[in-house]
Amino acid sequence: MSMSKQKIPLKTKLIAILLPMGIGLTFALFVKYKVLLPVSISNGYMEPSFKQGETKYFTRWFRKDNLGIGDVVIAVSPSDPNSYVMARIIGKPGDSISIQKRFVFRNGTILDPALFPEPSTQTIPLIPQGKTEHDDMKEVTVPEKSFFLLADNREIGVDSRTLGPIQESQIFAVLW
């Protein structure tokens, strides 16, 4: 008994090789451009957590009711719809937020310092009393369907201290 070798047509071989490659490539592109959002850090607002020039991946697929304290998000700036804000959530709807001598209070309790990286050691301009302009902030209550965002580099970061609470509809990505 001899086994005869069957010749597999070239077309079948090509399909067997190219079809899985095409499916894999399509899936990879879908994930890269629809699920994950590669973001190049263009400023120092989130230093030292994120260094200028680094690329971080954010996802657009998330539930806004699952956003929590400490999550890093990207939102459309309420002052300029062509600009974006990247910052950490420190307040949810109904929370009261204040800053006293650089300590952040949420509902009267100091936020865990581990939530924030070590403060910047850069030289910053001082106001006449010898404090920075962002060392203190009066209490603010976060409105419904809004979040209070705070940049890690508080000396130069743009966040809810200047923009006010950010509406949840303006948040479009969360750190992966």
From TrEMBL:
User: So what family is this one in?
Assistant: Belongs to the peptidase S26 family.
Gene symbol of the encoding locus? lepB
Limits of the Peptidase S26 domain: 18-172
UniProt keywords, alphabetically:
Hydrolase, Protease
Q: What EC number(s) does its UniProt record assign?
A: 3.4.21.89
Give the species this sequence originates from.
Leptospira jelokensis
This entry carries the following GO cellular component terms, namely: membrane
* Keyword Protease among UniProt keywords: yes
Q: Which Pfam families match?
A: Peptidase_S26
Q: Which InterPro entries match?
A: LexA/Signal_pep-like_sf (IPR036286), Pept_S26A_signal_pept_1 (IPR000223), Peptidase_S26 (IPR019533)
Give this protein's Gene Ontology molecular function annotations. serine-type endopeptidase activity; signal peptidase activity
Q: What is this protein called?
A: Signal peptidase I
Q: Where is this protein primarily located?
A: membrane
Which reaction is recorded as catalysed by this protein? Cleavage of hydrophobic, N-terminal signal or leader sequences from secreted and periplasmic proteins
State the annotated membrane topology for this chain: Single-pass type II membrane protein
